[in-house]
Specification:
Elements lengths: L1 E7 L4 H10 L23 E6 L1 H10 L3 E12 L3 H9 L13 E8 L6 H16 L17 E8 L2 E7 L21 H11 L12 E3 L6 H10 L20 H22 L5 E5 L2 H13 L6 E5 L13 E4 L10 H18 L4 E6 L2 H6 L5 E8 L2 E9 L4
Parallel strand pairs: 4-5, 7-8, 7-10, 8-9, 10-11
Antiparallel strand pairs: 1-2, 1-3, 3-6, 5-6, 11-13, 12-13
Helix pairs in contact: 2-7, 3-4, 5-6
Length: 398
């Protein structure tokens, strides 16, 4: 069994833990999915779990809110460079690398006697060469590459060294469908996270309620909702770092893909016309991008995209959820513009969506208050490096 770690963006770890539990890859779901989680310095944040090779493959294939999946190669105490290299050379690098294979090293050092990250990286590269007879070629990280070099992560905290290898490759939000983007695109993992946190996802695999996004941009929230409701594996159409490992089990991977295809096919047949998802935006280019992205994600038939202003939305007659990421400073030029927009959002919700649930990302609680809606901005998240909060509540009838 491997020690594994699902890395999650700030605020998403409890939701990732819930996802792992539904996949049978964690002992239990968290009692409170929105509870804050203590994080050590240098820890990327996420959820530890254990599993075999199938668990590694399944986590990458199915997790919607994790950023990447790591395999813990080893943990040991290191207070000197000789000790570090000797211990690192004992790890089973041959399971994950071939001699001379390019790697990218990411090293963090906190409150340890070995504090020079470049020197630590040099010793780990030497240790890999000691084990495999040939040292790896070291390349710079490229987050935008479709197939980046194998990533090796080294963390030193209080003289305790943890070495991990990345099983994912490109970050897991890279589902493969979003080639066209509008302004301020929302990461797919964050979109999935707010669908879970809003409460909409809870019934998505039973009787999905209508969902509306009046600021849909390039369509990430509606598309992620449709993928979730269709029980479509988010990693079905992409490659992963583990596919390059010497011990990659092609037959096992193919069996997981066959299972995923069957689950999605059965779910689509059961959905019929029950799934109602709408996305709208005043930017015609955004709607074009959203439609193209939905087509690549194979969910275009489940989403109605419309080009019109917020005031022109026509919600479905049955109450559902408004899940959205309105502008908060990057697409409008003045504070007055934003205050007016949020006030208008509240007015439209009360006029057209009474009784609906609302989940809205926002960077400023003052803007949330501007809506006049009774929303609780309790969950802290990060969107594009900006601290934001998810405000949720019910639109009360006036």
């Amino acid at each position: 069994m491997h020690k594994l770690y699902a890395v999650a963006a700030p605020g998403l770890a409890p939701i990732t833990e819930y996802e792992l539990s539904t996949l049978g890859l964690a002992s239990a779901a968290p009692a409170n999915p929105q509870a804050p989680r203590k994080q050590d310095a240098g820890d990327p944040g996420g959820v530890a779990f254990t599993g075999d090779l199938e668990a590694i493959y399944r986590a990458n294939l199915w997790l919607r809110t994790a950023s990447r999946v790591l395999v813990r190669l080893g943990e040991f105490r290191a207070i000197g460079f000789t000790e570090l290299r000797r211990a690192a050379a004992k790890l089973a690098w041959e399971r994950y690398l071939v001699p001379g294979q390019p790697v990218t090293l990411r090293v963090t050092c906190h409150k340890s006697r070995l504090y020079h990250s470049d020197a630590v990286a040099e010793r780990v590269v030497g240790a890999i060469g000691d084990r495999l007879s040939t040292p790896p070629a070291v390349e710079k990280a490229d987050e935008e590459a479709d197939q980046p070099p194998q990533i090796v992560l080294v963390r030193l905290l209080h003289d305790q060294c943890t070495i991990s290898i990345d099983a994912s490759g490109a970050l897991l939000h890279r589902r493969g469908y979003r080639l066209a983007t509008a302004k301020a695109p929302l990461r797919e993992t964050l979109a999935a996270g707010i669908l879970f946190a809003s409460g909409w996802a809870e019934g998505a695999l039973a009787e999905p309620a209508p969902l509306l996004d009046p600021f849909c941009g390039s369509g990430t929230i509606p598309i992620e909702a449709a993928l979730l409701a269709c029980n479509a594996a988010p990693g079905r159409h992409r490659r992963f770092a583990f596919m390059e490992w010497p011990g990659f089990d092609v037959a096992l991977w193919q069996s997981l893909l066959i299972e995923a295809d069957r689950l999605e096919r059965d779910r689509r047949a059961a959905l019929g016309g029950k799934l109602v998802i709408q996305g709208s935006d005043r930017d015609a280019g955004a709607i074009e991008a959203a439609e193209a992205n939905a087509g690549r994600a194979h969910v275009a038939e489940f989403i109605e995209f419309q080009h019109h202003a917020l005031s022109s939305i026509i919600p479905p007659p049955t109450p559902g959820w408004v899940v959205t990421n309105p502008p908060y400073g990057q697409r409008l030029s003045t504070d007055q513009d934003l205050r007016n927009l949020y006030a208008q959002f509240g007015n439209v919700m009360r006029a057209k969506c009474p009784g609906w649930q609302v989940a809205m990302l926002c960077s400023d609680v003052q803007l949330v208050r501007q809506t006049g809606l009774a929303l609780d901005a309790g969950l802290g998240l990060v969107n594009g490096g900006l601290s934001v909060r998810l405000a949720t509540g019910i639109v009360h009838r006036t």
